[in-house]
Design goal:
Helix content: over 70%
Largest sheet: none
Structural class: mainly alpha
Distance between the termini: 79 Å
Shape: elongated
Radius of gyration: 28 Å
Order of helices and strands: HHHH
Low-confidence stretches: none
Number of domains: 2
Number of helices: 4
Strand content: under 5%
């Protein structure tokens, strides 16, 4: 291996980055696979229900039989809401896993960068203490702003997710109320 430490560090960093990218790609593909499985399941279910309903309609001998068949059908809004919840759960789960991985790597890179900068600042020429102090203060303020932005983004995503869940539940309840009123 090359005795140059910076070349070795670069190669190790590249290997780690490739492993991290591979892991994140696997997480993304697992989420996509779950979505495909959900869509296949929904399609199979819809086809089976349609076939059952057609058979029931064909077997109906009186108008009352048709109304009984219509009453057995689960409301479309409820099915759509269940599908939406399942998709949201898969997307949230995958997004959370990717976010945690990215946050972990970002924190690691940030720590390494801070250590490198700190080491470089120790080599600063005499008399530059004020500039070094100002640079450290600026770095700290930037770090604080970044952490605040990350926390606000996470809170916004959680709020949007809760709002989606609430809207879905309200739609289902409205659907139930409307179907009971008929």
């Amino acid at each position: 291996m090359n005795s140059n430490p910076s070349a070795e560090q670069f190669l190790n960093a590249a290997k780690t980055a490739m492993a991290d990218m591979s892991s994140m790609a696997a997480t993304s593909l697992a989420g996509f696979e779950k979505l495909v499985e959900l869509n296949l399941s929904v399609a199979k279910s819809a086809m089976a229900e349609s076939a059952e309903q057609m058979q029931a309609v064909m077997a109906a001998k009186a108008p009352q039989d048709l109304s009984a068949v219509a009453g057995q059908v689960q409301p479309l809004t409820e099915k759509a809401a269940a599908y939406g919840r399942a998709v949201a759960e898969i997307v949230t789960e995958t997004g959370t896993a990717l976010s945690k991985a990215a946050e972990g790597k970002f924190a690691e890179v940030q720590s390494q960068a801070a250590a490198s900068i700190e080491a470089a600042l120790k080599q600063a020429p005499a008399g530059s203490e004020t500039a070094v102090s100002a640079f450290k203060t600026a770095m700290s303020a930037g770090q604080s702003a970044l952490e605040t932005a990350q926390a606000q983004t996470k809170q916004a995503v959680e709020t949007a997710s809760k709002s989606f869940a609430t809207a879905t539940e309200m739609a289902v309840k409205a659907s139930h109320s409307a179907s009971k009123g008929k």
